[in-house]
Specification:
CATH class: Alpha Beta
Radius of gyration: 18 Å
Order of helices and strands: HHHEHHEHHEHHEHEHEEHH
CATH architecture: 3-Layer(aba) Sandwich
CATH superfamily: SGNH hydrolase
Shape: globular
């Protein structure tokens, strides 16, 4: 347990040193206290949210952009996201190691203020890895959609399927169950779209060589695959979604 966490922290992609220190401290003995670990994660994530809030206060982003929100797969995309999604304007509000419940917790800080034309959502993978059930993960996403509908109305959500990876390949059955549940919901809702990236990441049932040393986070080659899938989903609806967003903004 300690060795695994140390390696993940040294990767330097997910978390700031503060979270690494917290998690390693919690792993200092043989016993594992999930509640204590969850509290430490929430505390560390809260510091990241504060940085976003401060940045928005200093320079509020324009409304009606495409909001990307979720866990570390969104964080790692930050450097190339704007170029990858051009000409679509984007806001990245990923925060690594987060669960869907954390997106819900800070919905008013990192989702609602931007009045996006569309939301691209990636989270749930860390939830399963932390031991949450498939039903819990899906229920948390249902909560997100309910919050979204209450605050942002028909703003569309594009759910990127939970991705397979070398580090978590044994969790593929649970990930597939979550993906199937979200896909089924998308079939019945006009404001929810499911983007299935799993087939793009596999070849003959095996993972493509698109992962970094930690076996969890993708290299730029992986994001090339995601870019094609996400833009193919967003672009056909972009004009209508922008018009709808601008009309909502114009209302008193």
């Amino acid at each position: 347990m300690i060795l695994t966490m140390a390696i993940r922290c040294r990767s330097g992609v997910l978390r700031r040193l503060t979270l690494c220190t917290l998690v390693l401290a919690l792993a200092g003995g043989c016993a594992r206290d999930p509640q204590t670990e969850a509290a430490a994660l929430k505390s560390a994530l809260g510091k990241e949210i504060e940085l976003y809030v401060e940045a928005d206060r200093a320079a509020p982003p324009a409304h009606c952009q495409v909001l990307f929100v979720g866990s570390s797969s969104i964080v790692v995309w930050k450097e190339s996201l704007a170029a990858d999604m051009a000409p679509l304007p984007v806001i990245n509000r990923g925060f690594g190691s987060s669960h869907i419940e954390h997106v819900n917790l800070w919905f008013d800080e990192i989702v609602a203020p931007y009045h996006p034309r569309a939301i691209v959502f990636y989270a749930g993978e860390n939830d399963l890895n932390a031991g949450k059930s498939v039903d819990r993960v899906v229920a948390d996403f249902d909560t997100f959609m309910a919050r979204k509908s209450a605050v942002l109305g028909d703003t569309p959500v594009y759910f990127i399927s939970l991705k397979p990876s070398r580090a978590r390949f044994r969790q593929l059955p649970q990930q597939s169950a979550v993906n199937a549940a979200i896909r089924a919901r998308a079939a019945t809702r006009s404001d929810l779209h499911f983007i299935d990236v799993v087939p793009l990441m596999l070849e003959n049932g095996q993972l493509k060589d698109i992962f970094g040393p930690d076996g969890l986070h993708m290299t730029p080659a992986g994001y090339v695959l995601w870019t094609g899938a996400v833009k193919a989903a967003l672009l056909p609806n972009n004009d209508a979604q922008l018009k709808s967003c601008e009309q909502q903004e114009a209302r008193p």
